[in-house]
């Protein structure tokens, strides 16, 4: 057990001291937990997440945790039970509309952290949140949200067999979430999450 704690501590130090991407702004943000069977993957922290030092800590987070609350999972419990990862761990800066999308080199640079977390935790379930996160799991990049949201999938990731159930990004800029199709499929995804064995086990649902 002490070996695992030491490994986890070294990993966190490495993550928090990373400065590989010169265009990224601020310091790395993490939502890591020492032990879990569930990993969520966001896109990248926003400017408020960088200030508060935890993922989904502003308006998009209110929407996300509002979704989870519908299936009986409170924010504080989710944060303790789920390793909240991201495709990139630093704030990418602003674009003309919303935050800048991390470039392929930045995604690649940061992938070592997700790889470690998958190998360390060997999760039974991954919840990718938003298209950039879904891209890391769905091999066919030519898809629409309605092709994947509301579905349950399985694949090997870094040699670990995982189920994955995607959610759209909860940003207020994501108009898809407010369409009839979007609302229906988000609810379907939440129902699938609620019924998943590891969710039932970890959250007592």
TrEMBL record:
Family annotation (Pfam families): UDG
UniProt cross-references to Gene3D superfamilies, sorted A to Z: Uracil-DNA glycosylase-like domain
Keyword terms: 4Fe-4S, DNA damage, DNA repair, Hydrolase, Iron, Iron-sulfur, Metal-binding
Matching InterPro entries: UDG_Type-4/5, Uracil-DNA_glycosylase-like, Uracil-DNA_glycosylase-like_sf
The keyword DNA repair is annotated on this UniProt entry: yes
Domain Uracil-DNA glycosylase-like: 28-193
GO annotation (BP), single: DNA repair
Keyword Cell inner membrane: no
MF-aspect GO terms: 4 iron, 4 sulfur cluster binding; deaminated base DNA N-glycosylase activity; metal ion binding
Family matches, as PANTHER family: TYPE-4 URACIL-DNA GLYCOSYLASE (PTHR33693:SF1), TYPE-5 URACIL-DNA GLYCOSYLASE (PTHR33693)
Protein's UniProt name: Uracil-DNA glycosylase
